[in-house]
Amino acid sequence: MPRKKNFTLVRVIERALPDRLVSKARRAIARLGNERMRESYFTTFWLDEDARPENVIEEVVLALWKKHARVSNCAGMEWWIGRAYADRLPIEFHFDHDIKGRARRHPILSSVFFFNSVSGGQLAVTDQTPGVVEAERLETVKPRRNRYAIFAGNLFHGVLGGAKGRLRVTLVVNYWDRRPTGVPTWRESGAYRAL
Ligand SMILES: [Fe+2]
């Protein structure tokens, strides 16, 4: 069946959150220093949909969900802080999925909140879904402070490289209908206590 060509793959929201909350979250991330810097994309946390926020980043996660990504069958959010330089990206193009689970499951929605402008390092989302041989379309989103990008959780996507430049700081939030396997809450994990 031919794929639809005229819909937007990524929804982009400018000034997604109150500036004060963005600044507070940015300061909290700065307090992390170099903790798990190289593993930042693999240090993910679970937050139940009805949980109380335990730190400012979880405040941001809940605010993004309530304001911009209300999905009816959402059990909660998997979140992580992405910190990387555009010339040394730790991830290839990929599908988001339940990495430790037996069955192949994808989030309902995937999303990226940008904390700063950097050159290069665009989020790139294709229309390729699992089982489809190749992508026909690609949309890119430039990192810019307080910009929020949301896309379907089964799309093939990645980050484009660039010059070293500034550290690219993002908050990634995936919305799930069921908690992904083996993802701890922030309290359970013991990581990122400085938040
Ligand atoms: Fe991803």
What can you tell me about this protein's structure?
The chain is of the alpha+beta class. It has a single domain (10-179), classed as Jelly Rolls, CATH 2.60.120.620. Helix content is 15%, strand content 25%. It contains three helices and nine strands, in the order βαβαβββββββα. The chain has helices at residues 19-31, 56-68, 186-189; strands at 10-13, 45-48, 76-84, 109-114, 123-126, 138-141, 147-152, 157-159, 168-176. The model has no long low-confidence stretch (mean pLDDT 94). Bound molecules: fe (ii) ion. Residues 94, 96, 110, 157 line the site of fe (ii) ion. Fe (ii) ion binds at residues 94, 96, 110, 157.
Structural class: alpha+beta
Average pLDDT reading: 94
Give the distinct bound molecules. Answer: fe (ii) ion
List segments where confidence is low: pLDDT < 50 over at least 5 consecutive residues: none
Strand content: 25-35%
Main sheet strand line-up: 1-7-4-9-3-2
Topology:
Layout: E1 10-13, H1 19-31, E2 45-48, H2 56-68, E3 76-84, E4 109-114, E5 123-126, E6 138-141, E7 147-152, E8 157-159, E9 168-176, H3 186-189
Antiparallel strand pairs: 1-7, 2-3, 3-9, 4-7, 4-9, 5-6, 5-8
The structure holds fe (ii) ion.
Short account of what is shown:
This protein has helices at residues 19-31, 56-68, 186-189, and strands spanning 10-13, 45-48, 76-84, 109-114, 123-126, 138-141, 147-152, 157-159, 168-176. It is an alpha+beta fold and 195 residues long.
Q: Which features does this protein show?
A:
single chain, 195 residues, alpha+beta, Jelly Rolls, 6-stranded antiparallel sheet, 3-stranded antiparallel sheet, 9 strands, globular, binds fe (ii) ion
